[in-house]
Amino acid sequence: MPTTAPPFLRPHDQVAIVCPARSASHQELAAAVATLESWGLRVVLGESTNVAHHQFGGDDEIRRRDFQQQLDNPEIRAILSARGGYGTTRIIDQIDFSRFAENPKWVAGFSDITTLNCHLLALGHQSIHGVMPLLFGQTGGEESLESLRRALFGEPVRYEVAPHALNRFGTATGELVGGNLSLLQTLTGTRSDVATAGRILFLEDIDEYLYAIDRMMVHLDRTGKLQHLAGLLVGHFTNPQDNTIPYGQTPNEIIQHYADKYDFPVAHGFPVGHEPRNMALICGRPARLTVDATGSRLEYM
């Protein structure tokens, strides 16, 4: 069944910033608010911003209530998660998406927000995997920020990536699905789990041990998540960790080891993840991936 795309934003629309995971202060979000206003949007800072419960943006009830209020408010046309970290899985099963289904809106974020991207996709709705407000001003992130704006406003995008030695050539079409590898493993078997068959999967992560990346790829493979993929995008695996005895493979080599069991096209080095170049991807939107000697290209259909 085709996924549903919320209406794209227009000038003067109202958007909300919330903290479903880690905390973010109004001072930390000031630059993002100014950027969104420069796009012609009106910004609401949810009650989960500028508060903290240990590392979280308020306790579970504050974060759940804030997200639910912004989800149900018909005046809010997009919800941006201020940052990732950890915490979204603690509240996802207490959120009611019934009113959202009647009046869908864009939800955007990455990292821990992979939970929301996948949960919405499991319900049949598109969302945006992209840079979050806390990172709007990062050096080198201008292109990523522009890609988020274009995704929110429905402007055309086409991503071109340089060749990579581990790429496997081919062409694939399918809906985009994916995000943070550790979250994809965590969500397996839950109500937020998503089907990957016939889809283009993208993966990224940060600070993971090399053996743990292998373990998570074993899990994806054993649960059938790789077997019927249309294609695979391998994004940033930032700051990988190793043990005293080296694991012996890079993150890209580990992933390719499992991809080599199948014949779908693979594009390594795709600019998505915990780096300044983190291009917005619309989860659930049909796309075409082309990988050849000149590199890889991704465009929406």
For the record, what CATH class of the largest domain applies?
Alpha Beta
**What structural class is derived from the secondary structure elements?**
alpha/beta
Low-confidence stretches are none
How many DSSP E strands? 13
Which shape, going by the Cα principal axes? globular
Question: What is the CATH homologous superfamily assignment of the largest domain?
Answer: LD-carboxypeptidase A C-terminal domain-like
- How much of the sequence is in beta strands? 15-25%
Q: What is the H/E order?
A: EHEHEHHEHEHEEHEHEHEEEE
Pfam families: Peptidase_S66 (PF02016), Peptidase_S66C (PF17676)
InterPro entries: Carboxypeptidase_A_C_sf, Class_I_gatase-like, LdcA_N, Peptidase_S66_N, Peptidase_S66C, S66_fam
Protein name: LD-carboxypeptidase
Domain LD-carboxypeptidase C-terminal: 173-289
What order do the helices and strands come in, and which of them pair?
Blueprint: E1 14-18, H1 26-38, E2 42-45, H2 60-72, E3 76-81, H3 88-91, H4 98-102, E4 106-109, H5 114-122, E5 127-129, H6 142-153, E6 158-161, E7 170-180, H7 181-187, E8 200-206, H8 210-222, E9 231-238, H9 251-259, E10 266-268, E11 281-283, E12 286-292, E13 295-300
Parallel strand pairs: 1-2, 1-3, 3-4, 4-5, 7-8, 8-9, 9-10
Antiparallel strand pairs: 5-11, 6-13, 7-12, 12-13
Helix pairs in contact: 7-8, 8-9
List keywords for this structure.
301 residues; six-stranded mixed sheet; serine protease; 24% strand; seven-stranded mixed sheet; 2 domains; hydrolase; globular; single chain; Glucose Oxidase, domain 1; 13 strands; protease; alpha/beta; Peptidase_S66_N; Rossmann fold; Class_I_gatase-like
